[in-house]
Amino acid sequence: MQLLSDEVKGFLGNSSMIRRMFEAGIELKRTYGEDKVYDFSLGNPDLPPPPEIKKAMLEIAEASDQPFAFGYMPNAGEYAARTALAELVSGEQGVSVAPENIIVTCGAAGGINAFFRATITPGDEVLCIAPYFVEYGFYAGNFGASLKPVPANEDFSINVDNIARAITPATRAIIINSPNNPTGKIYSKAELLAVAEVLTEARKKSGRMIYIVSDEPYRFLNYDDCDVPSMFDVYDGSVVIGSFSKTLSLPGERIGYIAVNPALENSQELLGGLTLTNRTLGFVNAPVVAQKLIAKCSNARIDLDVYRRRRDLMAQVLTDAGIEFILPSGAFYFFPKSPVADERVFIDALLKERILAVPGRGFGLPGYFRLAFCVPEKTIADSAPSFKAALDRLA
Fold first, then answer.
1. Quick one: 227 and 343 in the same domain?
2. What's this model's pTM, rounded to 2 decimal places?
3. 38 with 321: CB under 8 angstroms?
4. Which domain holds residue 22?
């Protein structure tokens, strides 16, 4: 008796490599102890939230005896939260954004799914730049679209010619993730303007909107004071999707947003559709406590210097081991080149030395692997002999 759909059964057979490594790490820690396992598999921020969060939570708790304190909220979000988010997005994008242009969502993932539900017709294609976040394919596939990865340049910058060649009449959107997971790359304004020019020409020919979905949960994690360009300034058919999982170390609160570019013609139609899909996908509204937190704390931040020190330490460990990499400008990942062509062989060698990393093919680029450095500095420093031992195993 078949219990699952053929599609989901296939997904389970190729389940997330990140989660597999995370689960392998749990077993290793049981065997060797927490301090003897170097788990760089999952981008789960370990820093406590900023102190503003605790203060706000106590204030929310004090008001919890009021009627409807945790009742249903408008599907688009509480107005106080939307107002705070509009101020935040206006500052980041350099464009005045009204609260009415904001939809509060169950994290960035909930936002992307709500957006695709509102805009995708089955058979559409969604482009993304490879390497890319592994879940994008599921998000597009949920609504009958196919994900079409477009290879980046060797330095992980955008190859605009590849994007131009990938566009077809079925192209509905391109996801731009900057700072990027898994590479840490921050795309320049010149790159984004070139992409916008290609999309503008393509939609003139087809008569159909091609959106840029700017996935920005890592915007704040910018270690070298690079310019993170405003997507609203670059392209009218853009939406910005963000969250507070990394900025405030609140991944389990599932709070994010969609901001629609005010320059988009007939943007109210899209916003109406997003409000509907945010409800009908079963979210109803984003978590109430998290919305109240964001209304009070949207400008709070974790200490960026902690991650900057970890990045620099990881760079030193990899350099000393002789592993080739491009220093990430943002996010909290390294995406080094595997010392052997099949990175799974190296991943196995690392695993034997109690290091957990994720194969690059899970991100659409074999021959590389991902390391998440949102772990204590001691874990990074202590892993150095194990990286060298893994290379010795291959030798």
1. no
2. 0.95
3. no
4. 6-49+303-394
